[in-house]
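[Meeting: bench + compute handoff]

Bench side (C.D.) handed over the final construct sequence. Compute side (W.E.) agreed to return the predicted structure before the next meeting so the bench team could plan truncations. Sequence as handed over:
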Amino acid sequence: MTTHSMPNDEIFRKLLSGDSLDFLKDALARTLAEIMEVEIARLTGAELHEKSAERQTSRNGYRERRFDTRLGSIELLIPKLRKGSYFPGFLEPRKRSERALLAVIQEAYIQGVSTRKVEDLLLTLGVENCSKSEVSRVCQALDEEVAAFRERPLESSYPYLWLDATYLKVREDGRVVSRAVVVAYGVNSDGFREVLGLEVGLSESESFWTEFLRSLVRRGLRGVELVISDDHKGLVAALTRTLEGASWQRCYVHFLRNVNARVPKARAGMVIELMRTIFAQPDEASARAQLRFVAEKLATQEPEVANMLLEAEPDLLAHYAFPAAHRKQLRSTN
């Protein structure tokens, strides 16, 4: 085996000189190299350049790796194998700490912290030589994970599908702009809820919703019996094109917000509480009777709201066709 030992007189000369820190770094580097030689010899079944009948594989050069220590950074040459892989045992604890550091960087990225600010944060934590370009490279792994999640096959059937959207500020080409973020989540045949899809677009147009839903179908979305969403016209039109045979439940929370915007503040509380009684009914027949009673009661002072209620009746009460235990979750996207 190749030795990296140093004569005693040279060791003492180094210690007595002013470059003891460099000497300690060199000594540590030599020690780590010896450790790797021992580990790689055990894996290959032979020492360096040794001919042995017990050899299991052979070396295949080295790869460089920077190892940051309290003595400073050390450039390691880690042996590679033609078959299998090797990672130094003394780096395993380091590997765990690196994963924790990567998690901090990625979490900051998710929260919208700029790469420059992440670099400054790492400096305050004592982590040097991690530029904003390296931060960006680390965060690319997140993009890959998100892409894999968004494109994964949908292998179950999803009887219930919720669709919702919001608008977020995003940075594009140095400008901050508003973009629509749409999300689909469903309950699979085993009763577990999953996020099925996520997409960002210019707006909630019919074409955007149509392509989003078609992408879910291409990935395997099937078995949808009820879709729950607000009454966005583009979304509702897209549903009729892509999910034929599925019923549509208009989100009652969004409906109540629409009503609230059309009623004087002095009467809004009373009107909303009156409408809530519709959705507290035990069965579809009772709910329909209560809806008509509420519409009749509001017809004199709030004719617009009464008409809205009657027109939306089949869509607001679609969830009553499904098991009673599920209805509370099916009547709203909230």
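W.E. noted at the follow-up: DSSP finds twelve helices and seven strands in the chain. C.D. will use this when planning the next construct.
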